[in-house]
Every structure is written in structure tokens, then in C-alpha cells.
Design a protein that fits this description.
184 residues, mainly beta, Lipocalin, eight-stranded antiparallel β-barrel, 12 strands
């Protein structure tokens, strides 16, 4: 067996690529809201179910992760708006919205999480600004990102023969706690 510098370098590289801990998103404490505008008024919808995970690197910093939201778990408080939004998201064919963070650039508590958002059958690369604050039980991850429905190939929900229409941009705000173990 060869124990030279090359094999040591390969072993070190393999260790650095492995996450040291997987943290689960605590669904009970997760908060997420989607908001936007329309030709009539501003609107907002609560996301009632958020799941996911975060991997930390060997120094305990956030390294990657994923957030999943069932498309049917976005609750706008009005049955018609819920239906229009689910239709726009093509929820029957694409029941899960997912952001998968693949690369994290850290600047203090601020992170730039580069990854892929999959929604309504479209996957787009994007960067999400995230604040990661260590807590006794894990990490509090929070942030706000503005998305273009057009860029994601999502039809803007409309009503009254298209005379009432949502704006192209929606804002997603979130605050989740990533903790060790199974957080169901």
C-alpha cells in the first residue's frame, strides 16, 4: 500500500467533501411567507409545511442543504386565490417546490447560497441570501428573496378574465431552525 503524499492528499480531499453533520429543518417552528402585488391589492400567503435538511462541514459551518414545500401547502386565506395559485404552480403535476443549495459563500453570519430552485416543472439556478445564526440547538436560517414568475415559467395568477392579475415579482421570506436528529 502506498502512503505517499498523493494518497494522503486524496484521503484529505475525501474527508473535506463529506459533511460532518446533517441537521433537519424543524417543521414545527418553520415560518415562510410568499407575498406579491396585483392590479387590485397586495397579497400574502403563509406556507403551512416546510421540510428539509442542512449539511455542515468539518468546521460546523453550513455547507449545503435543501428546503421542500408542498405546492398545495401555500395558504392565501381565500379559496379562489388558493386555487389560482395552485393552478399557476401546476401543483397536480409538480407537487413539490424545492430549493437545493449546493454551494455556500460565507461572510460572517451572512451566506450566499447558490443552488437550484425547482417549481412548476422548471429548474433555475439562483443565489439566495441567508443569515445563519448559531443557536444552542442548531442554526436559525432566515432570509428574503424576490423571484420573477416569468423567469420561472410560472403563469401569473389572474381573475375576472385577466383584468385582475398578480405582479411578476413575488417575495419569499423564511425563518427555519435546523437541528440535529429527526425533526418531524
Amino acid at each position: 500500500m502506498i502512503y505517499g503524499p498523493l494518497s494522503q492528499l486524496l484521503a484529505l480531499a475525501a474527508l473535506l467533501l463529506l459533511p460532518t453533520e446533517r441537521l433537519d429543518i424543524d417543521a414545527a417552528s418553520a415560518r415562510m411567507e410568499v407575498s406579491g402585488t396585483s392590479t387590485v391589492h397586495d397579497w400574502s400567503c403563509a406556507v403551512e409545511s416546510v421540510t428539509g435538511w442542512v449539511n455542515t462541514d468539518d468546521s460546523g459551518d453550513v455547507a449545503s442543504g435543501a428546503i421542500q414545500v408542498p405546492a398545495g401547502a401555500i395558504e392565501c386565506g381565500k379559496r379562489v386565490m388558493n386555487r389560482k395559485l395552485r393552478d399557476a404552480l401546476r401543483a397536480e403535476d409538480h407537487p413539490v417546490i424545492e430549493f437545493r443549495g449546493e454551494r455556500v459563500v460565507r461572510r460572517g453570519d451572512a451566506l450566499a447560497v447558490e443552488g437550484r430552485l425547482s417549481v412548476a416543472g422548471t429548474t433555475a439556478e439562483m443565489t439566495v441570501p441567508v443569515e445563519a445564526v448559531p443557536e444552542q440547538s442548531g442554526y436559525r436560517l432566515s432570509g428574503t428573496v424576490t423571484l420573477s414568475l416569468e423567469a420561472l415559467n410560472v403563469d401569473r395568477p389572474s381573475a375576472v378574465l385577466g383584468t385582475i392579475k398578480t405582479g411578476d415579482e413575488v417575495t419569499v421570506s423564511f425563518s427555519v431552525l435546523a437541528i440535529p436528529g429527526s425533526a418531524s
